[in-house]
Every structure is written in structure tokens, then in C-alpha cells.
Design a protein that fits this description.
The complex is a heterodimer of chains A (248) and B (246). By secondary structure, chain A is an alpha/beta fold. Chain A contains nine helices and seven strands, in the order βαβαβαβαβααβαααβ. In chain B, α4 packs parallel to α6 (150-170). Classes of the chains: A alpha/beta (248), B alpha/beta (246).
């Protein structure tokens, strides 16, 4: 139990990779705030955390909304009194060709994926600074590096998260806070299913050097490493967990 | 059965810390170093801490010697689960016009060719096993370059591309190949050459507000041997306190 006594906030924690991370951190003893737009699903994850023998707390949040994020921070401190780990996973994956794209789709993607990182990090950093320790882990994407047609704002937002992580790491390092990104390769989650047939998806998921279909649970190990004391000298980095599909 | 790790440069600061970390996790470590005395010292320290270790000397630039060592290790231990190529160094700090061809080759050979030779001999052992982890050592200078260290920067950049290539070649056999890129680290070799002022200057530039320790590197090397990193290959792990964020 590497994270006994720690408190983690996982945005987008109700499903997919976020849910796996919430459960993975909980399995190591951390208490988890499951923050998600989908309140019912967040409650289900809290039930799963209780079954693992740890505590969870569901909070409905829109990470692109300033006052909503403020309520998330208040709810976290009211319930658990501190925060040690923030995992910024909440994001949207919206499809459109650039020439046909509405301003609304662009804004929503950037505001949720990138703005959510800013608002949530800003909300929890003061408390991490006071305790002189903290871990911020943002979920970027391999698409930050190689792009994806019809997903320009997603690619832009994920690349921007990496830039944000590098800048923030330099601002908060002196207070013992590390900030890193994980870049998952395409994974077997609901997110890519919204835009692909099952056959297309599985073929794509398998087409990596290791020939392994990435599952949400496969990202937990690297997250645990970054959240642990073992990674206290790693900051400002983007770690690719993608079965070798892209090497940078 | 205890996994077997062959670690070159394991008589030095970072290599020694990596050997200790892996031994503490129950891995049998083969402490390999150019300097047999240094390797023997690390082996002894691991043994007295209750770990399993063996020591040997190898010049990683000598193809025949590398082949003989790997053959011997395979014969005695039956397998090689982890190869950590840590032998290396910058050796010289001077302007390019002052580098002799021999000095250039020396730096390229110890860092880059040594990594190639070790991987060439160990990869077939891992291919037979259908499993293995290869960990190479780059440097932040392999990404940023470093004035007065032309061959070292070139060799370390070379190791990053070599790692990616080998990762692609060995992926079908379930072998993962990654690079750890240390930033400036408090090893006896670095600290011996550094003035207190230079050290303070270095310290002031590091976002995490402290200098890197060999143990910081050891944790990253160890992580890359565990099941938690099963789906990471061909990547470069920069461990530098945020000094360089490529």
C-alpha cells in the first residue's frame, strides 16, 4: 500500500482511464475524490472504492467552469482535509474537419481539456504548496505528438497540456510538487468508440509494435510510479505509454 | 526464481545505485565494470545488505570481450532478464578543434558502441526467453547538446535513436527497450570535478530545488523492469528535477 494516508482527486474519474486510475490509486490505499460531470457514474466508482477497502467521495464537476471547480476543491477539503495527488483526466473528444468546425466545438474542446487542467491545478496548488509536497499528473495523449485528422482541437489541447505541464513544473518544483503528463496510446475505452466501428477500432488498437490492445488499467502502473516517492525527481515530463506506437 | 540483471558501469555512482535498487527488489545483479575493483566493492556491499550479486570486469568497447562475458553469464545464470547499459562518460570538456580523433572515438565507443555491442550479444538470449528488459543510459545533453562535449552529446543522442530502433526490432519477442536520461547527478565522478560555486549555480537552475542523486535514477531504472511498465517501450525517461523538459 504505497499511498496509505494520501488523498487523490481524479477528474474524469467516473469511466474509462480515469476510473481505472481512481481504482488503482485506491487499491494502494489512497482516498479518492471521484470528480466527474456524470454524477451517477462517479457514485458507482465510489462504491467500487469502498469494496476495495478505501474511501471515495463523488463530486459532480464541470472542469471548464470556475465556480464548479471551486466547489470541487471545497468538497475535497471538507471531506478529506488535504490533497496529495491531482490527476487531470477529464476531457472531451469531438470530431470535425477543420473547415467545417464550429467555434463552439473548438471552444468546448479547448476549455474542457486544457482549461480544466488550468482551473483544477490552480485550485489545488495552494494547499500542496503549504504542505511542501504534491503530485499533479495530467492525461495528455499520443495525439499531442502525431496529430489526428478530424480532431484538431483535441490534438491542440493535448499538446498544450504538455506545454502547460512543463511550465507549471518549473513554477512549483521548489515547493516539492512534481507535474507530469502521461500520453496514452489509443486504448480500449468508450471514447474512441463514439467515432469508429468496432472492427476499425480493434484493428487500430492492435497496430502497435507490441501487438497489445491497451486497456484502461494499463496506465495505472506509470501513474502509481509518478505519484510515488520514487519519482520525486521526475518533473515536467510527458511519459508515453503506448506499446511503442510512437517514440519520442 | 530470482530474475537476473546484467548492469554495466555498475561500479560507478549511478550504476552502483541501480545495482543496489534492483538487488533490494530481489533481483540477482551481475555488477559489471571496466574497473574490477569497483565492481567487487559494489558486489560486496550488496551481499552484506543481504542481496544476491556477482562481479565481473568488462570493457564494453571490445566486441570479443563483450561476447565472452555474455556467454559466460548465460552459462552460469541460465538467463538474462534485464540488461542495463550504464557504462559511459563524457571524459573531456573542450572545444571541438581540440578534440583528437582518438579522443572522439573513445567517447563514442564507450557510450554508443558499448551499448550496441552489449545489446547485440544479450538480445538473442532474451529472444530465446521471449522476454527481457533493456535499459540504456542517455543524458539530457543527448537532447539539448552541451558545449565542450560534442562526442558525448552525439553519442547520447545516438543512444536515444538506437533505443527506439531496437525497441521496434525486439517488440515481437516481448522485449522492451527504453532509455533513462539523467540530468546532472551527484556522483563521485561529477562532484570530484566540480567547484562549490559551480555546484551552487547548477542547483539554482533546477526547478525541484535540489541536485539529482544516483538513487533518483535508480528508481527510474527499476520501474522500467517492473510489470507496471509493461506497455512502455522505445521511450526516454528524463530524470533531472525539471532542468530539461523536452
Amino acid at each position: 500500500m504505497r499511498l496509505q494516508g494520501k488523498v487523490a482527486v481524479v477528474t474524469g474519474g467516473a469511466q474509462g482511464i480515469g476510473r481505472a486510475i481512481a481504482l488503482g490509486l485506491g487499491h494502494e490505499g489512497a482516498k479518492i475524490v471521484v470528480a466527474d460531470l456524470q454524477a451517477e457514474k462517479a457514485k458507482n466508482v465510489v462504491d467500487e472504492l469502498q469494496a476495495l477497502g478505501t474511501e471515495g467521495h463523488p463530486v459532480e464537476v464541470n472542469v471548464a467552469n470556475e465556480s464548479s471547480v471551486k466547489r470541487l476543491a471545497n468538497a475535497t477539503f471538507d471531506r478529506f482535509g488535504r490533497v496529495d495527488i491531482l490527476v487531470n483526466d477529464a476531457g472531451v473528444y469531438l470530431k470535425s474537419l477543420i473547415v467545417e468546425m464550429s467555434e463552439e466545438l473548438w471552444d468546448r474542446t479547448i476549455n474542457v481539456n486544457l482549461g480544466g487542467n488550468f482551473l483544477c491545478s490552480r485550485a489545488f496548488i495552494p494547499s500542496m504548496r503549504k504542505q511542501k509536497s504534491g503530485r499533479i499528473i495530467s492525461i495528455a495523449s499520443g495525439i499531442a505528438h502525431y496529430g489526428a485528422k478530424e480532431f484538431a482541437p483535441y490534438a491542440a489541447s493535448k499538446a498544450a497540456i504538455i506545454g502547460f505541464v512543463k511550465a507549471l513544473a518549473r513554477e512549483v518544483g521548489a515547493d516539492g510538487i512534481t507535474v507530469n503528463a502521461i500520453c496514452p496510446g489509443a486504448a480500449n475505452t468508450a471514447m474512441p468508440r463514439t467515432h469508429r466501428t468496432e472492427e476499425e477500432l480493434m484493428a487500430r488498437l492492435r497496430s502497435n509494435p507490441l501487438g497489445h490492445v491497451l486497456e484502461p488499467e494499463d496506465f495505472v502502473g506509470p501513474i502509481l510510479f509518478l505519484a510515488s516517492d520514487a519519482a520525486s525527481y521526475i518533473t515536467g515530463q510527458a511519459i508515453n505509454v503506448n506499446c511503442g506506437s510512437y517514440m519520442i | 526464481m530470482s530474475p537476473i540483471a546484467l548492469i554495466t558501469g555498475a561500479g560507478g555512482g549511478i550504476g552502483g545505485a541501480v545495482a543496489h535498487r534492483m538487488a533490494a527488489a530481489g533481483i540477482t545483479v551481475i555488477v559489471a565494470d571496466f574497473d574490477h575493483g569497483a565492481a567487487e566493492k559494489v558486489r560486496g556491499a550488496i551481499a552484506s545488505a543481504g542481496g544476491k550479486a556477482d562481479a565481473l570486469s568488462v570493457d564494453v568497447t571490445q566486441a570479443r570481450e563483450v561476447k565472452a562475458v555474455v556467454t559466460d553469464v548465460e552459462k552460469r545464470f541460465g538467463r538474462i532478464d534485464v540488461l542495463a547499459n550504464i557504462a559511459g562518460g563524457s571524459f573531456y570538456t573542450k572545444r571541438i578543434e581540440e578534440f583528437t580523433w582518438a579522443e572522439w572515438k573513445e567517447v563514442i565507443d564507450v557510450n554508443l558502441k558499448g551499448t550496441f555491442l552489449m545489446c547485440r550479444e544479450v538480445a538473442p538470449v532474451m529472444q530465446k526467453q521471449k522476454s527481457g528488459r533493456i535499459l540504456n543510459t542517455a543524458s539530457n545533453y543527448g537532447v539539448t547538446g552541451s558545449a565542450l562535449r560534442t562526442p558525448y552529446s552525439a553519442a547520447k543522442a545516438g543512444i536515444i535513436a538506437f533505443t527506439k530502433t531496437l525497441a521496434q526490432e525486439l517488440a515481437p519477442d516481448g522485449i522492451l527497450v527504453n532509455t533513462v536520461a539523467p540530468g546532472p547527478t551527484d556522483t563521485p565522478r561529477v562532484m570530484g570535478k566540480e567547484s562549490p560555486e559551480a555546484r551552487k549555480q547548477r542547483w539554482s537552475q533546477i526547478p525541484m530545488g535540489r541536485t539529482g542523486q544516483p538513487e533518483d535514477l535508480a528508481e527510474a531504472f527499476y520501474f522500467l523492469t517492473t510489470p507496471e511498465s509493461n506497455w512502455i517501450t522505445g521511450q526516454t525517461f528524463h530524470v533531472n528535477g525539471g532542468l530539461v523538459t523536452p
